[in-house]
Design a protein that fits this description.
Keywords: Membrane, Transmembrane, Transmembrane helix. With 271 residues, the chain is of the alpha+beta class. Helices cover 34% and strands 22% of the residues. Among the domains are: 73 residues, 434 Repressor (Amino-terminal Domain) (Orthogonal Bundle), CATH 1.10.260; 102 residues, no CATH class.
């Protein structure tokens, strides 16, 4: 897609003398997806959530505004069709034209038969039908014995597989009312799953069983690399620059774009 918003990504990458394979290795994204984004071949990308995240992460890595590319991708997913005849007003006819139109319609009107002929015709059809049915019953032979075909009992249908509901994540208590940060509740899940992908380097600390629990990790995130943490009940996360990371909890993205200072997140299962 030449001269498109997606083509700007390719120009930005080439200006830095970087190959797609090098960037794919750093960002932990398959090379064919990055190549498809540069070409504007959005049909080669995975589902909506991952495709948009790949575009946003790749653009931020190259220092390009991701919004124009995201706009092209959304237009590809939901094209706007225009009706060619919309807003067409009817053409007003003059009095002479309306008279000619009505006259032509009267000329081609098919005359209907008189009502009496319809009554006579219906009576004849009914008489013929009654005669045929009477002859059919009088002329029929003794009915043959019916054979009953034995069939095996129908097996009861197997129960339909139950569709498991997708996990939901909601804010239960904001940091303004809780000293250990924002509290998020997770439903329809058997464990807490945290995924972090850094756009820029930043420090994190991950604890199990709440804000004072055991430290699972305390490290500096590398841009483009995804870190995953799981716990059966509760994960406490501290991030120095939340706006530098893409934060996913059980597949649901937490918006951290406006949080530019140290922030703490409590992620726990709820009934």
């Amino acid at each position: 897609m030449s001269n498109s918003a997606a083509d700007q990504l390719k120009k930005a990458r080439q200006s830095r003398n970087l190959s797609i394979e090098e960037i794919a290795g750093e960002m932990n994204i398959q090379p064919q997806y990055l190549e498809a984004i540069e070409k504007g071949d959005f049909s080669a990308l995975p589902d909506l959530m991952f495709a948009q995240e790949f575009i946003r992460t790749y653009a931020n890595y190259l220092g390009v505004d991701p919004n124009p590319v995201l706009h092209e991708y959304r237009n590809f997913r939901n094209p706007v069709e225009k009706t060619p005849q919309e807003n067409v007003s009817p053409i007003a006819l003059s009095r002479r034209e309306r008279h000619a139109q009505n006259r032509s319609q009267r000329q081609f009107r098919i005359p209907l038969p008189p009502k009496k002929w319809l009554v006579w015709g219906g009576g004849i059809v009914c008489l013929l039908l009654v005669t045929f049915i009477t002859w059919l019953f009088l002329d029929q032979e003794e009915p043959a014995a019916q054979t009953v075909e034995s069939k095996p009992p129908a097996s009861s249908p197997s129960p339909a597989p139950q569709i498991q509901s997708r996990p939901t994540v909601s804010l239960l208590q904001p940091s303004e009312t809780y000293k250990y940060g924002d509290v998020y509740g997770i439903k329809n899940a058997d464990r807490v799953e945290l995924k972090l992908t850094a756009v820029k380097p930043t420090e994190i600390r991950v604890r199990a069983d709440g804000p004072t629990g055991k430290i699972l990790a305390e490290k500096k995130l590398t841009p483009g690399k995804t870190e995953t943490f799981t716990h059966e009940k509760w994960i406490s996360l501290r991030v120095d620059h939340p706006n530098y990371v893409n934060l996913f909890v059980n597949g649901v993205k937490i918006d951290t774009a406006e949080q530019k200072e140290v922030h703490i997140y409590q992620l726990k299962l709820t009934d």
